[in-house]
Amino acid sequence: MPALAVQQLTKTYKGGFQALKGIDLSVEEGDFFALLGPNGAGKSTFIGIIASLVNKTGGQVEVFGHDLDHDPEAVKSCIGLVPQEFNFNLFLPVFEVVLNQAGYYGIPRREAKVRAERYLRQLDLWDRRDTEMRKLSGGLKRRLMIARALVHQPRLLILDEPTAGVDIEIRRSMWSFLRDLNAGGTTIILTTHYLEEAESLCRQIAIINQGRIAERSSVADLLGKL
Ligand code: ADP
Ligand code: ADP
């Protein structure tokens, strides 16, 4: 069973703009997958639909065999999302940001605290657990969003442009964290417009352009063609 199976996915926004024009894509369990494309290609729209933030216009989405239309709650419980922008919870301390998310998934407080500590330590944020989120740098905020997205232990982690605007040192630490997470069995899909990021991290890649999949291959094969 694939982690993600998408068929003929379309999205037309209210003004009539067609952001997705019939996407077919599948991602195997355990994969580290890059969705690469220029700004405006439809990447955020695509993952917004998978993560139930955007309504699709047409087509089918299945996550670990759960159909998004028939069982959206099952889909949500399989997915952790690291959004590109986060302007919520800004006045909450780091630890509470993660605990809040755990509460949203109904994880008992004691277990939530254990997990929050584990992920904040792994992401080098434990020393800042009492710092308000708004006081973190962009890169640290993004690492916090990763901890938050993992607290319900999703099988699929989706990251929207995880390292855009993040300095090189924090980018490297994020890359190494994500590699370890994937090695532990979590399927990862990220969007990026840096080929270098896809090349360094991912095994499979799809290139999206103007709402269509322009290319789909292993990263190794794609680089061989360039
Ligand atoms: P949905 O169909 O998923 O409900 P909407 O079409 O309602 O999405 O759009 C959500 C909001 O985003 C609207 O308020 C819309 O005005 C706004 N929006 C419009 N154009 C853009 C754009 N190019 N990028 C981001 N947001 C936009
Ligand atoms: P990417 O993530 O690849 O940069 P997006 O999915 O954000 O692309 O956007 C794809 C296209 O859809 C863009 O042209 C964008 O302006 C448009 N778009 C995004 N959100 C909305 C919205 N809410 N309403 C109308 N148009 C939108």
TrEMBL record:
Section covered of the full-length record: 1 to 226 of 312
Keyword Nucleotide-binding belongs to the record: yes
Gene Ontology MF: a single term: ATP binding
Name of the protein in question: ABC-2 type transport system ATP-binding protein
Domain (ABC transporter): residue spans on this chain: 4-226
Keyword Protein biosynthesis (UniProt): no
Record key words, sorted: ATP-binding, Nucleotide-binding, Transport
